[in-house]
Specification:
The protein has 239 residues and is α+β, with helices and mostly antiparallel strands. The protein has 9 helices and 5 strands, in the order H-H-H-E-E-H-E-H-H-H-H-H-E-E. It has 2 domains: 100 residues, no CATH class; 108 residues, no CATH class.
Amino acid sequence: MKNNTITITTKLYNYLVKIKKEKYNNEKDVTIDNLAEDAILYYYKINLIDLNPENNYIEFNNLNNFKGIYYVYAFLDLSKKVEIDINICKFNYMPIYIGMGQENRINDLNSRDKILKKNIENLKTINMFGARKLFVNLTKQKAYEYESKLISLLGRIDNETGILYNKNNGNVKSLIESNKIITENNIEYNSIIVILNCLNKYKYIKDAANKLNISERTLYRKIKTYNLIKENNIWKINN
């Protein structure tokens, strides 16, 4: 990694020092160089793939084992056969809830709404509860879009518009407003893919940072920004 010297005005330097104190007060080893590096990457919208051009990152069409991928699922009442065709999806059994998540979310029934949980328990006592993944290998944005669309089309019981026990129509709006959407085609998503691949390929953060051509401190901040965690020696997005 090359060390280059840049000249900035005193006014800009003082402002960077102010940002450092306000935003990175718990990170004593953050330097002005780190801040400048982040600013340059952001200003020029530099994709980390451009800094790491070798074909050693995950392709978008081969993400079946990528831990950050989301899916959309439905809980079903198997005692009620139906023929529901809403263009993007068909149901042969009555859907009672639409959700999205990662990994084992579809099997997690403990954190559900009390009314939904009670209905699930009732269906399970007569062996008539089902769960089905509707769409898989999705980005977070796409999962929210599908979830919201399905809830809107099927309607909710609580507002007398339909058949689902959902309490809202999904959180697409809040994601857009918080600027945390990740899509297949934007720089942020590409960067996350490359960072995860490097973190899982190299044993040490320093080696991964060198491969990405960014500083170790910048990589640590990106890990924090993108909410990445390491579980069972595998780096992934923390849902």
